[in-house]
Structures are given as C-alpha cells and as structure tokens.
Amino acid sequence: MGLGRWYNRTLNRIWGFVEDRTSMRRWALRPQPEFTFKPSYWTGGFVATAFLYQVVSGALLLLYYQPSTATNATYTACGQAAGSLSPAPAAWCSTYYIIHSVPMGSLLLSTHLYGSYAMIFLMLVHFWRGYYLGAYKAPREFSWMVGTLLLLLTLGMGFTGYLLPYTQLAYNATDVGIVLTLGLPTLGPLTAPFILADGTPQGLLSRMFDAHVLLIPLAIAALLYAHVALFESHGIAPPASSDPLQRRRFTDREAKEHVPFMPHIFFYITKWGLLYVGILFGIAALWPWTLSSYYGNTAVAAPVTVPDWYFLWLFKLVDFVGVTPVIAVVVGTAIVVYILFLPFLDRSKRTHPRDRPLFLWAGTSLLEFFIVMSVWGGETPGIQIFPMTVVQTIAPIFVVNAVAVGLFYWRYARSYKRRLADRALGLPTPGAPPGASVPAAPVGAAEASARE
C-alpha cells in the first residue's frame, strides 16, 4: 500500500515538472467533464485517430507507388503475373510490387484500404450520434457545418484513392462517378478540365493522385483544425435534454473542475487508438486485400462495375427507370444541403430525440434509405428497377417510420404534460423515491415549458 502511494506521488511529481517546464496546460486541449469518459463521447477522437493512421500508412506507400500509366518491357513480368503477355501499367505494377516484394507490404496496403473504410464508417457513426443528440444546436452550428464538409472530403478521399491501384474495376467505377459529376448542368463543364486534365488515362490518374495525396488532405487538415478550434471554444455538448433552458456550454469555473487533457484524456484516447490499430492489423492479416486485373488487360473478362460501399446507394439510384445521372446527383446534393443547414432548420431549444419527432423521422428514414440502397446496389448492380418495385421497396421505409415516430411522440407528449401538471401541483414525480418532496413549479413556467 505504501509502495503504491510512493509510486503515484513520484509520478505526479515528475509530471508536474514536465508541465511546469513545457507550459503544457497552455497548449493542450481543454479539460473535459468526468461523465464524458465513455466511448460514445469520443467518436470524433476515433475519427481523428483513423485519419492519423491513414496519413502515416499512406506516406509509407508513397515510397513505392508510381502514379503512371506507362508500359514498357520492364513491366512484362507484371503482365504475365496477371495472365497477360502485354506489359501492365506502372501504377498497377508498383501496387503489385508492394504486395509481393515489399516486406509487410501486403499488410500495409490492406490496413490502408481497410482503414479508409473504417474512417468513413466511424465518421458516419460520429455524424449520426450528433444528429440524434442535437449536437448541431446553438452555439455549435458552425462546428456541425465544418464536420459535414469534413465528411464530404473524406468521401472524396475514398473516391480519388479508389483509382490509384489502376485495376479495371477501379477505372470503370471512377468513370461512372465522373459521368455523374460531369452530368450536372453548368457545374459539370466547369469541373471537367480539373478532373479529366488532357483527357488521357494518364491525365486522369495524375489528377486523382494529386487530389488524394495533396489537395484533399490539406483541405481536411485545415477543416480539422477549424473543427477542433470550435470544439475548444464551445466545449463538449452536454447530454441531450428535454429542458429548453439547459445551458449549452460550461462555465470557466466548471471547466477548471474537469479532468485535464494531459495526461488523463491523452492516455484515454491513446488506449482506444491502440485498440483500433490492433483490430485493423488483425483484420488485414486474416483477410488481406487482393489485387484484381489491371486496366486494359484483354486477357480477362471485364468485371461488373461496382463502386465502394459508401457510394453504392447513389450507384443504385441511377438504375431506377427514369432517373438520369443528373437527377441522381441532384438528389444527393439535396441531402447534403439538408444536412449542412440542419442547425438553421431545427430551431427547437430541446436536444432530446423524443422532442424532435420531425427530424427524428427524417434522420432515421435517411439512414434506412442509405442501408437499403447500399445492399440493393451490391446485390443487383446494373440491373434496372421499375417504378412500382421502387415504390414497394422504398415507400415503406418512410411510412413505417412516420407511424412509429408519431405513436411514440404522442405517448411521450401525454406523459410529459401529465408530469408538468403534477409538478405544478407539487405532486411526487412517478419513479421518485417514497417520501421525496417535489417543490411546486409556477404554473406559468410549466405552461411556458410545455409550449417550447
């Protein structure tokens, strides 16, 4: 027991010396309340950890990757490995070399690929958590908008990186995405020179490479800095509440009583970060990514064009009879605009999901729509869907959600009004300990709260 106290006292003394000499408290992130030490409160930290690993693993892959479509006799062996006598492109061959010749190259490439999937998934989890708990409400409107832009840029990272191995499947999927983008009126012709370059495969690969390793990462770094700065300004959002008068930020005095970032929060995030990397390496070791045939290999059959899972919903939308690429992009843009300006659409002061039935219905319907369309696109890629089938599959999502949310909200509203009436009369709240006294609330205040 004495040895444990001595160890803790010595560790605190050493850490205090480090803080004093480095002024660490001035540049470390702000303290956080103790109730936030749960994984659900740190989904944003998990996304940042995933992004950091993508930067490190991507930098290592750059040591070997060649963003070139050139073919010559040097790459004949790569072509023979793919079952063709013709030389393979340099981009594909360098990827092949990473997998088969670089020590631990297959593991590195697989973790980078699966890490991109994990980052997008974690960002979606972070997004939906903030949506349901009302994290976008004042004073965090701009933080939500910056986070939405970060989500779009992360999807852009996935789209541009998909082409870099230069497989036939990746080229076809990228071509479909470009057709969707260029189909937009006015905006499409303006962006065409920036995407297609000189119109050659090498020009397209170079633009995707530049966007993936330089332009988009710089934009993500800038927005991530803005996102963290806004988080530092407002602090973590309090738990969701039905109280319209709940404060949405902590006072300076309360902040000083919170747990400091260094070393407590830092080690807490590090623990989960190491777990994330361990799981990522385990999955990559058990199911390593396999490189498919290169673009232009006539010795193999052309694969069915299927994009990555996060674009399957939009890919399947084009298969609906009567839905043109322009309509599909307009639908996607409308969803993005709704999410981006959500803080200015939902003006209620309450943050609990049960107090926002309309937005609860919209969010749940969009989530289920995304899941159903993604599965549909993966199971039946390229197969046209007629309007009646679309109605029978998609309409129940919105109808059933409307009925379920309406019933739950009706039941909650009745019980909430009854609790307000009991509180106004000074009656004990259901579920309170026996004998507990509840101070009577002014009737005017109860009515004002009920109108919120």
- What would CATH call the homologous superfamily of the domain at 34-241 and 260-298 and 322-343? Cytochrome Bc1 Complex, Chain C
Fraction of residues in helix: 55-70%
> End-to-end distance, in Å?
55 Å
CATH architecture tag of the domain at 34-241 and 260-298 and 322-343: Up-down Bundle
Shape annotation: globular
What is the count of β-strands? Answer: 0
SSE topology:
Blueprint: H1 2-22, H2 24-27, H3 43-61, H4 76-81, H5 90-100, H6 105-132, H7 141-162, H8 168-182, H9 187-196, H10 201-234, H11 252-256, H12 261-286, H13 312-317, H14 325-340, H15 342-345, H16 357-379, H17 387-425, H18 443-451
Helix pairs in contact: 3-6, 3-12, 5-6, 6-7, 6-12, 7-10, 16-17, 17-18
Structure in words:
The chain has 452 residues and is mostly helical. It contains 18 helices and no strands. The radius of gyration is 27 Å and the shape is globular.
Care to give the gist of this entry?
The chain is mainly α. Among the domains are: 1-30; 34-241 and 260-298 and 322-343, Cytochrome Bc1 Complex, Chain C (Up-down Bundle), CATH 1.20.810. It has helices at 2-22, 24-27, 43-61, 76-81, 90-100, 105-132, 141-162, 168-182, 187-196, 201-234, 252-256, 261-286, 312-317, 325-340, 342-345, 357-379, 387-425, 443-451.
Features:
single chain, 452 residues, mainly alpha, Cytochrome Bc1 Complex, Chain C, disordered C terminus
